[in-house]
Amino acid sequence: METGEEFGPWLARQLKLAGKTQAELAKELGLTRAAVSAWIAGRSTPRPTVMTDIARALGTDVGTVHTRTTDTQAGLPVTWYHRPGYPDGGRDLGNAAAFAFDADVQVLARETCQNSLDERLTENGRPVRVRYTLHELTGEHLEAFRDAILWNDLFPHYSAVSELAGNQKVGRVVDAGVRDMYEKGRLILLRVDDYNASGLTGDDYGDGKFAAVVRRQLESLKSGTAAGGSYGLGKSTLWATSALGLVLINSTLSVPHEGRTERRVIGRLELPWREVDGRTCAGPAWFGRPDPDTPGAEVARSWWADEETLARLHLSRDGDEPGTSFLIVGAHDVASLEDQVDDDKPRDEEGPEDTRDIERMHSRLVEALGRDFWAAMIGGGGRLPLLEASVRALRNDEEVVPETKVDPSVEQPSRTRALRAHYEGTTVERLTESGQVASRNVPLKLPLAGGAPGTLGTHQAVLLVTEAAGDKDIPANHVHSLRGNRMTVKKAKVPNLPIGTNPFQAVVLVGEAAGDSAPFAKEAEEFLRAAEPPEHDRWGQTEELTLRWSPSAYRRINNLTTEVNSAVRELVARPRRGGREGGEALRKALTVKSRPKAKVPSGPVVPVLEGLDATIGDQGEWLITAEVSIPRGDEIVPMVPVALLDVRSGGRPRLDWAELVAVEGCEAEDGTLRFPPGTRRAKFRGATDASSHPVRTALTRLVLELRAGKEA
User: Fold this and answer.
1) pTM
2) CA–CA separation, 584 vs 170, rounded Å?
3) 391, 399 in Cβ contact below 8 A?
4) Relative to the CA of 96, which of 1, 342, 540, 705 has its CA 20 to 30 Å away?
């Protein structure tokens, strides 16, 4: 049971909401103002018989006064507050932050689940539980919900936006959402609930998590160093997924606010600038209780709702565990259209496409959670998972798709096996049998802050490699990289694998994901977090990385990638058969006449580039495989491969190598190829650094040269 708020603060707020002074209440009760003041200051409490008189004066029932778990309904009712237009005539035609992401439930799952992981309560050691509920409303259920959100008050604003829809992008999305609701008689709700999370704590307007999410843009207040988010943009996916720009919120707090923890409710609407009844509105609006402390009591703030109100708003939570429920009103999944193309069946280009199919959205949510958060759902070796996730679908409160708990062993079987083996200490140094997991440390050399030359220290990331487990592990031969909160940040294919390599999957644990004993784990977390873009789907050059470290700091990450790929190739390489295996009987049956040895030229010989195979990689880099022939000689000159872009005139721009590895007949060291004496043929592979390309790779031609000595 929730503990009610202290009587004094509760009574003071009710007087504000009712527009009464302490003196007026005292007069109605037939008491002195000093007695009321003593109640509010906490020096005394009223007698039970006086409670009935207080309830009557506030226009509520005596039970509300005794329990104090909700506000009275007297005075200022819940309503919509629309931010007035700017006095200087400026117009915001939508929230720019929402354009950072697509209307995609998979992107929503990635951002919201990451935020829940970041806000997990760690003291109890339990995972954060996240549940996604798709709910289609029709008929009387739809009408009841529209009444609950005061749709008649909102409709003039949607109409004003629709009138401008032809000239404005956000307006067209909103207009389509409203038309779908009326023409098809349905509304899709998508609710995201988390439990064992901190909740939206803090004041409505002050510095805190509530204000950061509900009131502000581009503010990120995270709870730990391993947090995934850093831009304050992830919350915008909630509004981007709503075709109506509307999200309702119910939060149970881990830290009391106004003496309360349960049922803190607010709504936020994101619309473009509009004019309604001669009054201009800047854009956002809030659904809440008018704040009596603001001028004219117009600004809406959060309020403590009762259970009946939550049920009508579809915001009821299970139990009193801290966390937050976000209800996306008018959810749609435009990105799902890309997955509906069937190459074997022709599709009518003008045919109807439904971006509000709750069964399809259910499937895509499960897929995204299993792909991006499989590692956070795994325990072992005494470790509990960080996350539990599930998805369900309803239609008018009836179950359409049963609640599906995301199982990492089903979604990512090989990587699940690898991570559990790491936790349980059963990894091996080399793969010799089916089902084994090989482990290797790979170095990440951390730069000094402020652009200072040198290295702060070397963090040892953990590489895990295991064989791919059948059809579920597609695509194979990929590395998933993750850090402290165990969300997959980077997915990349290992290039230049030897022909005949058995399919495998690999995982790289960096930062705090590498373990408590890993050196410089917190510093690696900070460095890699700064190297992530708003999508948190890779590590590379960012403005923050440049400002806090240096313009070349990203090369440390490229070096880590090189080390990882090299270690993977070594771990998955098949051992070569000895030169005398399997042919002894044949050799005894043959007589081979030996030829006299040719005279070996004296002096150094220069290798010659004989063959080149080049393709463009996923990141826009050139991937090359080159063969070298070497004349006979006692000494072979070391050579430096140089990648150039072919141009019509002027000097050819030189590209940097992100990776240069020897395949056979040579050794690669610091960009130089060295050849053992007597070598006649050699092969090497390389990948250019895409960030060093002056133009898009697809528009260029590559030239590869071998340069000797200082010519390089």
Assistant:
1) 0.72
2) 77
3) no
4) 540
